[in-house]
Design a protein that fits this description.
126 residues, mainly beta, OB fold (Dihydrolipoamide Acetyltransferase, E2P), 5-stranded mixed beta barrel, 6 strands
């Protein structure tokens, strides 16, 4: 048995970047920040931000483009994938680990509070 599952709750660092693949399918790239707060050995409070690359495909990517923007808090559930590509300068292979989103939910409000509030009966697109 094996399990490949990632769950992240954080804020978008920028607006989703959406493009069409040669097949016509949409793909969205998201950058999600999570924060860990802890006390170091000296008893001082510390905060560390981790950035997560998230990719969504198809209808999920279209919904990301339509509904998400920088600062929005999101719940992302998916699987980890590491892919290899060649560096543009020809210096050899590079690796990128990302979360392939299978489920994405909007949480809370945008940082500036301008996100529209959902009403009872509204469909949740994710």
């Amino acid at each position: 048995m094996s399990v490949n599952k990632a769950i992240v709750i954080g804020n978008l660092g920028r607006d989703p970047e959406v493009r069409a693949l040669p097949s016509g399918q949409s793909v969205a790239n998201l950058s999600v920040a999570t924060k860990a707060r802890f006390t170091d050995r000296n008893g001082e409070r510390q905060e560390r931000t981790e950035w997560h690359r998230v990719v969504a495909f198809g209808k999920l990517a279209d919904n990301c483009q339509r509904l998400l923007s920088k600062g929005r808090q999101v719940y992302v559930e998916g699987r980890l994938r590491t892919r290899q590509y060649q560096a543009k300068d020809g210096s050899g292979p590079r690796y990128r680990t990302e979360i392939v989103a299978l489920q994405l939910r909007m949480l809370g409000n945008r940082v500036n509070g301008s996100a529209p509030k959902a009403k009872a009966g509204d469909e949740v697109p994710f």
